[in-house]
Amino acid sequence: MTDRDITTNELLEFLQENMVTKEDAKSFVTKDDAKSFATKEDLRVMEHRILDHMDDKLADLEGSIVARQRKEDNRFRRLLEGLEKFKVLPKDEIDAVRAIQVFPQITP
Fold it and tell me: What count of other Cβ atoms lies within 10 Å of the Cβ of residue 30?
């Protein structure tokens, strides 16, 4: 045997000294303690509340992103109008750039 091998007697002695008995375990959690634990239904309700809250927050975020994109598109459209007005770019190129906007405008 090497130094690391454990004999059966050593193992049994260790278990007798450190093993938890049924009587020892009864004092860990009583029935009254268990009543205060969350039930599956409690957890299900909490999960739905969290998911609803996350849905609301994601909808708010999406709304603010769309608002920012619209503002950016308005700035971009005004820039294109200036470029077209001062004939910096030909009309066909300006129309091609307008087509790639996030919220394209219908041009008359």
Answer: 9
User: What is d(CA 75, CA 71) in angstroms, rounded to the nearest whole number?
Assistant: 6
Q: pTM of this prediction?
A: 0.54
Summarised one tens digit per residue, pLDDT across range 6-35 is 889 998 999 888 888 888 777 777 777 777
Sign of the dihedral defined by the CA atoms of residues 24, 28, 34, 39, in that order:
negative
- List the structure tokens of 63: 């709304």
Q: Which helix (H) or strand (E) holds 4?
A: none
Structure tokens at 96: 């091609």
How far is residue 33's CA from residue 26's CA, in Å, rounded to a whole number? 11
Give, in order, the Cα–Cα distances in Å from 41 to each of 13, 31, 50, 55. 44, 19, 14, 21
Q: How far apart are CA 26 and CA 59, in angstroms?
A: 49
